[in-house]
Structures are given as C-alpha cells and as structure tokens.
Amino acid sequence: MKYDVTVIGSGPGGYVAAIRCAQLGMKTALIEKYSTLGGTCLNVGCIPSKALLDSSEHYHNAAHKFSEHGINLTGVKVDMAQMIKRKNDVVSQTCDGVAYLMKKNAIEVHHGFGSFQDKNHILVTKDDGSTEVLETEKVIIATGSKPIAPAAFNYDKKRVITSTEALNITKVPKSMVVIGGGVIGLELGSVYARLGTKVDVVEFGDRIIGGMDKDCSKELMRSLKKIGVKFHLKHGVTTVKSTKTTVTVGVQKRDSEDTFEIKADYCLIAIGRYAYTDKLGLENVGITTDDKGRINVDGHLQTEVPGIYAIGDVIKGAMLAHKAEEEGVFVAETMNGEKPHIDYNLIPGVVYTWPEVAAVGQTEEQLKAAGRAIKVGKFPFKALGRARASMDTEGMVKVIADKETDEILGVHMVGPRTADMIAEAVVAMEFKASAEDIARMSHAHPTYTEAMKEAAMAATADRAMHI
After folding, report:
1. Which active-site residues does the annotation give?
2. At the fourth CATH level, which superfamily is domain 355-461?
3. What is the rounded average pLDDT of the residues 399-405?
C-alpha cells in the first residue's frame, strides 16, 4: 500500500487535512487508533460536551424561566439516561458523517495505532495484534491531546475523573469539585450546576479563564455564581482521595498555610491537556519534542524531517479544533505548492457556557502591556431589546481599537450566542476594519449583533446610542 500522504489521527485537524489532500489529487491514507473517526473533539470533547450543555440549558430554563414566559410546568425532572443517550446519538451521527466524507473523497482508512518505522513507512498495529505497513511519500501527524491527570490526584476514572468520564455520568451528582477554572472545567461544571449539582471550582490563578480578557472573566464568574457555582480563586489542590462513593479534596490557599477539605461525589480534573505523541516512533525518524511533548515545526508546520508535518494539539498554540482544521488545510495546500496563510491572532476562542464567551485578537491587558495606545467601547446586553425579549441580559460586547487609526485590535464578548457573533469580528479584523466601519454598518433590529455595532460606536467616539 503506497500513498502520497498519510495522516495519523482522525480528529478535526487530521480528517480535514485528509480531505483537502484528496481534493488536491493526492492518494491519501488516514490512520485512526479507535474504532470511530473524529478524534477527541467528536467523540469525547467538543461535540458531546455541547450536546450536554444544550440539554442542561433546556432543563434549567424549563425549571427556572419558563414560568416567567407564561409557561407553567410541574414535575420537571432530569432523565440523565436519556440525556446521555441523546448525546451519544449526536456523537454517532457526527462520526458517521466523517466516515461518509472519507468514502466520498476516496480516502483509505486504516484502524490501528500508527507509528514510524522510518520517514516513508508507517506501521499500523491493530487491536488484534496484527500489523500492516503503509508506504508513504509524506506524513501529517495529527494525534491530538489527552487530559493532564497528575499521579498525585489519584485519577481512577470512577470518582476522580477527567472530561472523558464527565460526559458519561448516568446520575446527577449532588456535588462535584472542579480542579481548574479554564474552559473545559467551567463548561462541564456549568452542565452539572444547571442540573442541580453543587459545584466548587478550585483555581490556582487570580481569575477564571485566565487567558481571556479580564472583563470576560468577571462577567462569566458573575453569571456562574448565579447558578450556584462556588469559586476558590488563588487556591491549590494538595490531595485527592476517593472511596467507592465519595471524594475528598484537600485545598490550600495560595501563599498561605490555610487549608480546608471539600467532600463531593466527584472530582473533575480540568487543568489542561498534553500533546499525545507517545509511542509514535518519533525517535526512529529524528523528530524532537519540547518539555510538554509538543513537536517542533517550522513556519510551514514541517518537522525537522522533510516531508513530515504536524498540526493541531501536538504543536504549540491554542488547543482548538478550528485551529487544527486551518492547519490541516494549510499543510495540504503547502504540499501542493500553494502559499496559504494563517493569522493565529485571528483564530477566535470560545467558552460554551451560558452565557457564552467569545473573543478574537488581543486583550486589553496585552495591548496595554505592549504600550499600545487604544480606545475601548463596551455595550451591555441588558440594554438590548432582543436580549430582554429572550431574557438573556447578562454579559457585554467589548471592542478595542487603535487610538490613532481606529483599527479593531480585539473583540471580547460574553452573552447569548456570542460563539456565533464572534465571526463578524473575525471578518472585520481579517479586512483590517476600523471600529467606525462596524459602527456604520446596518445591523438588523432586534438582534444580538446590535451589541457589536453599539460597542463599535462606543469605541469610535463614545457615541453608543442605547446606553
């Protein structure tokens, strides 16, 4: 079996890279260690977590908000088994869709663990122990990442869990401790908080979602507190001990001797992910990794070995599915002699809590630290007619522009459907738009996107009209 290119890993980066390679006329193979395609994102990440987030939001609204709309319900309760079943159905349909796309594009799929024999030969070890060798001219490594679970936390997949197990809890817990105030911990923590679980978040840093704009951190924490989430900022976890039915988490205040314990049904470890590059045989071809297991690549995403590329979570940068997809297309087109481009500053980040958080470009803190002269416009959703109509009044849109040129440098949102709204900001910044450009564009009324227009107006000349 000889191929022009072989892709190891079928997550969003890998399968999109394979499709683009096939579209460009390359004979393409895709290797996936699991029985289903789609990688972490489709199987135990983006897709299933969003399915549960939506289900939990529907329940929360039915239990707490429907009456205000004049819809009176009695006996509203959670059917966790059905919720998990629906989530699994969504995952299955999505993974089946990827399998269809492989057939449609004549991409040959090999199930098994792929590793390098040398730069042109990939060993595929199947679940039954049998092997096959693929001969290939070029390779794209897209093996993704795994949750970090330090040995000291006694990860047992039963009471001490990661995001993978948190997607399959069959009974609503009474309590849960989340270690880490980042995207994954807050998304899954909010799922269970909305279902009635008492959630404690332990975060070593000064604030949650530390890589995002401070205003977003404040707005999101305020919203999550309203649904009962308790935050322990500037605290670290010292011990995690579990029994068959409970878990006890030892917590210590940062820069202090003060300690306390939290007892709960589950402890969710959500302190980040590590590049999954183990046992790939990288040493057989001379590919090196950094101290976090990430593969070193050049500006074309090529490793030290000509013809071998790496994309997604296995290289430096944000661990985002859409970043991996862009890199997959970038590498395929580079192989084809084209000159594609990725602007990493304009890859948006999203937190799929409710309200959602979305951002693109630089934060106010980053720009000030760089000595950039800026102007900032903000607009709260509570001042928006559409948000009042839907009872989604929490959050705001923040537009940051250069003080002299008015070019938009960053947009940060917390509110309803901001995960979709952020695309307008990405388009604007791709075309080097000014805040005034957005301010002078007609936005349909009433819509959530009017908040973007109003924030741009506020940034342009402090002339937002509805506050």
Report:
1. 445
2. FAD/NAD-linked reductase, C-terminal dimerisation domain (3.30.390.30)
3. 98
DSSP string, 354-380: SSEEEEEE--HHHHHHTT--EEEEEEE
With beta carbons less than 8 A apart as the criterion, state whether 44 and 161 touch.
no
Per-residue pLDDT, 467: 81
- β-bridge mates for residue 236, sequence order: 252
- Pairing between β-strand 145-147 and β-strand 273-275 as defined by DSSP bridges: antiparallel
Q: 328: Cβ–Cβ under 8 A, 6 or more apart, which residues?
A: 12, 13, 14, 15, 16, 17, 18, 20, 140, 142, 311, 312
Fold held by 2-147+274-344: FAD/NAD(P)-binding domain (3.50.50)
Residue 463 clears pLDDT 90, i.e. is over it: no
d(CA 338, CA 317): 23
**How deeply is 86 buried, as exposed, middle or buried, from its count of CB atoms within 10 A (0-12, 13-18, 19+)?**
middle
pTM: 0.96
Tell me the pLDDT tens digit for each residue of 92-113: 999 999 999 999 999 999 999 9
Q: Which fold has domain 151-271?
A: FAD/NAD(P)-binding domain (3.50.50)
Where are the domains positioned within the chain? 2-147+274-344, 151-271, 355-461
Element (H, E) at 101: helix 80-104
Please report how many Cα atoms fall inside a 13 Å half-sphere around the Cα of residue 424, on the Cβ side.
25
